Amino acid sequence: MGPLATQEQLERFESYVTSTPAEGGRVLTGGRRPAEPSGGWFVEPTILETHTEGIRAQSDEIFGPVLAVTTFDDEADAIKKANSSQYGLAAGVWTSAVDRAHRLVRSLSAGIVWVNTYRATSPVAPFGGLRDSGGGRESGADAIYDYTSVKTAWFDSSDEAVSDPFKVQ
Questions:
Q1: How far is residue 91's CA from residue 82's CA, in Å, rounded to a whole number?
Q2: Cα distances (angstroms) measured from residue 3 to each of 20, 26, 118, 127
Q3: What is the pLDDT of residues 115-166, one digit of tens each?
Q4: Domains of the chain listed by start with CATH number
């Protein structure tokens, strides 16, 4: 695993690790900078327990080697918790029940939903999120819409004056 991208990202990662216990969660493993390599912005893979509502690590995009885990009472509670974030880049479902997988894919507010896998991608499949993780799609045929803007123009090239510009023609 490589380092985080910037010093600012390292500080952001550390703020989540520090704030989780203060907000009612626990650091189950990781959360530290490893002794080796000594240079760079390396951090240990980290698992945070976030059972209490309002823990930022449960709802924010951390962009580091962090897994925030929580419990849920039933499928409806799991969907509610998953959709409570302002972000919606991706979601993962692990189940042996095909009907449940389809139901969850429809119910989860995320641009990508992986079922029994993680990070499956293809250059022909659109990639992008919803809500504050939105902003279009990369890859696939839909990506062209990020780089284009549709405009409609109507021209009347006749020499006749327009009698009623508000009449639909």
A1: 8
A2: 22, 23, 21, 24
A3: 999 989 998 998 889 989 877 788 888 888 878 888 888 877 888 887 887 8
A4: 7-146 (3.40.309.10)
